[in-house]
Amino acid sequence: MRLRVPASMCLLLTIVAYLAELPEFQGMVTAERDSQEIRPIYIGGFFPIESHPFFASLPLTVQTAVNHVNNLTGILDGYELRMRWNWTQGSPANALRLLNDFVQNGPPVLMTWGPMFSSVAVVVNEVLPRYNIAQVVIASSTTLKDRARYPLTVQVSVDEDLLNPARVAFVKRMGWRRVALIFEDNQYFRQNMAKLAEKLLENGITVLTTEAVTNAEHPDEQIQSLKRHDARVIITAFYPEPAAKLFCKVYTAKLFGAKYVWILPGWYPDGWWRDLPDVPCDNEETATALDLHVAFDGDQAVSEVSRIDFNGVKPFPEQIEYLESLHNMEDNSRDIYAYDCLFTMALALNASIGELRQLDPARRLDEFNYGDQEMAQILLRNTLQTEFVGLTDRVVIGKGGVRHTTVYVEQLQNEHPVRILNYFADGEYETIPNATIQWKGSVIPVDGKTEIPILTQISLPFQISIYTAAGIGVMLSVIFLALNIALRNQRAIKISSPIINNLIVMGCLLLYTSVFVSGVDTSGITDGAFIVLCYVKVGLVCVGISLSFGSLLVKTYRIFAIFQKAVARFKKIDLPDKKLMSVVMALVLVDCVIVTLWVFLGQSTIRTINLDPKLSDTASPESETYIIPVLRQCGSIYEIYFTCAIYAFKGILLVFGVFLSWEIRNVSVTGLNDSKYIAFSVYIVGITIVLAVPALQVFVNNVDIHFCIFGVAIVFANTVVLCLVFVPKFALCYSSRGSQLHISLMDAPSVPTTSTSLPASCRDRNRLGELRDTLRQKQESLADLLRACQAQAK
Ligand SMILES: *[C@@H]1O[C@H](CO)[C@@H](O)[C@H](O)[C@H]1NC(C)=O
Ligand SMILES: *[C@@H]1O[C@H](CO)[C@@H](O)[C@H](O)[C@H]1NC(C)=O
Ligand SMILES: *[C@@H]1O[C@H](CO)[C@@H](O)[C@H](O)[C@H]1NC(C)=O
Ligand SMILES: *[C@@H]1O[C@H](CO)[C@@H](O)[C@H](O)[C@H]1NC(C)=O
């Protein structure tokens, strides 16, 4: 026995030593021993496009992550993670075929990696829950957040909707109140933009237009619309290639430069616009249009690879080496998300192991089948609770199945994206040292023209000068009126019908008042008061003209009647002041009727006319603040008829007045009346009206000139008429000073002028004058008859 024991020991030792030198054999033994413990579990992989350089490396990256999981102690110990995968070529049909393959053949997959494209994910992920397969996807889409349709979907990449609060906060931070949206019309961007528009409106920001580009090749129409809306701050949502096409069009349409701010998604690969075959612009042109654009992204990479920590498990040095290489790779965002996506799944599976053991019956991960709802729920719950530091920094998934991310703002400076701001969920931004936002102009571009409507007002110098002139006119009228009343019994005044002259003064006073009314500062008054003012002005002008010009007219008519009828036909003419006054009053009545009808039938409204905008601050034209003078005018439905009625009425009077004045042009009786001056007054009024009315129409939109023409016309005509009517009379009255006055016909030089030096009583003088008048008239009639006879004789 003693001998046998050492002998057998020896043999055993030899075998052991032999085995140690045979690695294959050892492996076999290990495999044999572990076959009870290491259980393969499967996940599915939907990879996008094999031939595309952006995506070609993804399966390798994910497979490496799988290997890392398998080689790390502390994650899925006792299991071997394996991946069944294929390319979908970005087509939902292919993805469904692959899913069918997962379901029909081979071992079941517990979870899926991908799909990567949201267009594929929205189809496949709706089917996957039927087989209780949870999906962890890089795809992000508003649609995928519908928990009823996609109960088992978890998004580990930045959700486009997460960018929206940051975009809104940025727009507010820049002080913009107007933005425009343009997006590629697909499921991914459509809802995101709708939500953005909603959020903007909530924050009091106007969305000038939302342009959906259905044909990415031809966004021309949408670009024109942006131009039409004068959009300056434009938020875009496109995939990189359509975006490059868009910016080529932007370049052609010259919608770039200091006036425009383009806001893009920030997750495009570096230099995404370069060397694209279907973009008609060259790289520089597109880069010009893109220069200094602002982009939003939540994508991020961990600052130091050494910080990576899979929930307490640190990667091995060899793994760190690989992670380091991924971290330093240019344009690595897809690969680092792919890696972290796999680790999210692995950690969720690991965390589920214990819970599955608690189930009744207890289960292991490898015992999954497509009918196991309970297990799917556990996997989902653990996925939502994932928390680790990966290549994409902290991975924290919230209840909604969407990853929490810090959003940041970057700007393309010298063709390189520079991170300029970090956004915190509370609406605050943090600036990043040494990075400042740049603008092409000297200040932040404005969101568009600012137009400030201001009611036009007559400028002070014009108002003051016209008011002064009108004031002098009023004083003059009052003086004339006073003198006219005081001296009414003087013969020089008396024979020229002082009552009718008073009417002239009254009319002139009304007209002067209309000047004051039309110069009133209307900017502070209500529309109602403005309408009242309009009618007051119209009424004053109409009645004023009727009184003053009507009085002149009747006086002229009397002269005409006396000389053309009475003298020529030896008839006595009966035209006392009373009759004349009633004619004037009739004219005023017609005015009153027209204006009253206008007020009550016209249904007055206010017309506002926006005049040409003026730059408000010429020192800083980039602020684009314009002042729009707004003109208020009275309007009413029958305006044209009433205006025509008034013009026609006044026009007839005018023509009649001019005709009469012409007829009596040769009549001149000193002392008896002032026919020449009256005729001259009528001409003055006529000419003024003929010149002023069209001029007022021409300058209807220029309050200053309009007011000046109106004021000058009225003050001029009024004052001339007043002076012509009154000054000669007062002069005559002054020169005769109540002592003597004769009346003589002055028109014919052949008629001798009677001397004025007859001392007599006033009555005698009058009597004498009348007799002389009669004599003169007879002489004239005789002369006329003689002339007529001679003419007949010839
Ligand atoms: C697996 O892990 C061991 C250490 O546990 C390490 O030596 C080995 O290189 C790793 N293999 C791979 C392929 O990562
Ligand atoms: C992927 O699918 C194609 C056919 O669609 C098939 O030929 C190929 O073997 C599959 N590859 C893998 C890795 O399953
Ligand atoms: C994996 O699960 C085990 C328990 O099953 C746990 O002890 C371990 O901490 C988990 N690993 C990680 C990285 O969470
Ligand atoms: C900012 O610039 C200064 C000087 O150029 C430099 O010393 C500092 O390290 C920079 N800071 C960062 C965070 O880049």
Describe this structure in words.
The chain is α/β, with parallel strands linked by helices and 794 residues long. Helices cover 52% and strands 14% of the residues. The protein has 22 helices and 21 strands. The strands form 5 sheets. The protein has an 8-stranded mixed sheet, with helices on both faces. It has a 5-stranded parallel sheet with strand order 2-1-3-4-5, with helices on both faces. Helix 18 runs antiparallel to helix 19. The radius of gyration is 51 Å and the shape is rod-shaped. The structure holds 2-acetamido-2-deoxy-beta-D-glucopyranose (NAG) (4 copies).
Please tag this protein with its features.
eight-stranded mixed beta sheet; 22 helices; ANF_lig-bd_rcpt; 794 residues; binds 2-acetamido-2-deoxy-beta-D-glucopyranose; five-stranded parallel beta sheet; GPCR3_GABA-B; signal; alpha/beta
What is the strand and helix layout of this fold?
Elements: H1 4-20, H2 23-34, E1 39-47, H3 58-71, E2 79-87, H4 92-104, E3 109-113, H5 118-127, E4 134-137, E5 153-155, H6 160-173, E6 178-184, H7 187-202, E7 206-213, H8 220-228, E8 233-237, H9 240-252, E9 261-265, H10 283-290, E10 294-297, H11 317-328, H12 333-358, H13 373-384, E11 387-390, E12 393-396, E13 407-413, E14 416-423, E15 429-431, E16 450-455, H14 460-486, H15 491-494, H16 498-518, H17 527-569, H18 577-601, E17 605-610, E18 614-615, E19 625-635, H19 639-663, E20 669-670, H20 675-698, H21 703-736, E21 744-745, H22 762-793
Parallel strand pairs: 1-2, 1-3, 3-4, 4-5, 6-7, 6-8, 8-9, 9-10, 16-19
Antiparallel strand pairs: 10-13, 11-12, 13-14, 14-15, 17-19, 18-19, 20-21
The structure holds 2-acetamido-2-deoxy-beta-D-glucopyranose (NAG) (4 copies).
